[in-house]
Amino acid sequence: MRLIIAVDGPAAAGKGTLAKSLAAALRLPHLDTGLLYRAVARQMILAGLDPAQDAGETIAQRLQPDDLTRSDLRVPEIDRGASAVATQPAVRAALLRRQRDFATASGAVIDGRDIGTVVFPDADLKLFVTASAPVRALRRFQQLHGDAPPDRDALARLTEEIETRDRKDAERPVSPLRRAEDALLVETDHLDAGAVLDHVLGLVRARF
Ligand code: C5P
């Protein structure tokens, strides 16, 4: 089946984990579109450019597949740089075609912020994945530090960073983070990754 499944939501809500496992279960390709914005920010920083001030369009147009697999794309500097560069309309336009080309031939599970609203408004299924900010901060802490006991200051800092990034993503004028009207809400506060996947696979099987 050439399904296009759009998975949107705020930072660290579990959408990446869900999109990856859903794609594997349905044998569809997976695209994490956050990596595109992260790769543009990384290249800009390496070139001495400021993602919040300088134009990223040319770098976005020239992005290569290898640029999406760098190991340093998930560091805090790139979190901030990606969300800054994501406010530039020309960068978003340059990345739009790439996202559409990826999914159109074979179907795909695509995760991001504006997939169900802008990139694939006619997706076969749209999911909007959320969790409360403290739960998301704890998950991000565990991603960064494994099983280390969470410390209160670090969690407070991560909660603030996550809330700042969400605010920025939701308030920008171009392609803001928002739930498409026809997106199904998936709240993951009380569900682990396996339970979220089972729930969504149930939704997919009921529809297709
Ligand atoms: O999903 P991830 O946290 O890796 O995304 C990094 C940043 O890229 C987000 O905070 C957001 O500003 C931007 N982004 C976006 N649109 C997407 C995916 C990511 O604006 N479809």
UniProtKB/TrEMBL annotation:
<dbReference type="GO" id="GO:0005524">
    <property type="term" value="F:ATP binding"/>
</dbReference>
<comment type="similarity">
    <text>Belongs to the cytidylate kinase family. Type 1 subfamily.</text>
</comment>
<dbReference type="InterPro" id="IPR027417">
    <property type="entry name" value="P-loop_NTPase"/>
</dbReference>
<dbReference type="GO" id="GO:0036431">
    <property type="term" value="F:dCMP kinase activity"/>
</dbReference>
<protein>
    <recommendedName>
        <fullName>Cytidylate kinase</fullName>
        <ecNumber>2.7.4.25</ecNumber>
    </recommendedName>
</protein>
<keyword id="KW-0418">Kinase</keyword>
<feature type="binding site">
    <location>
        <begin position="9"/>
        <end position="17"/>
    </location>
    <ligand>
        <name>ATP</name>
    </ligand>
</feature>
<keyword id="KW-0547">Nucleotide-binding</keyword>
<keyword id="KW-0963">Cytoplasm</keyword>
<dbReference type="Pfam" id="PF02224">
    <property type="entry name" value="Cytidylate_kin"/>
</dbReference>
<dbReference type="GO" id="GO:0036430">
    <property type="term" value="F:CMP kinase activity"/>
</dbReference>
<dbReference type="GO" id="GO:0006220">
    <property type="term" value="P:pyrimidine nucleotide metabolic process"/>
</dbReference>
<dbReference type="GO" id="GO:0005737">
    <property type="term" value="C:cytoplasm"/>
</dbReference>
<feature type="domain" description="Cytidylate kinase">
    <location>
        <begin position="5"/>
        <end position="204"/>
    </location>
</feature>
<keyword id="KW-0808">Transferase</keyword>
<dbReference type="InterPro" id="IPR003136">
    <property type="entry name" value="Cytidylate_kin"/>
</dbReference>
<keyword id="KW-0067">ATP-binding</keyword>
<dbReference type="InterPro" id="IPR011994">
    <property type="entry name" value="Cytidylate_kinase_dom"/>
</dbReference>
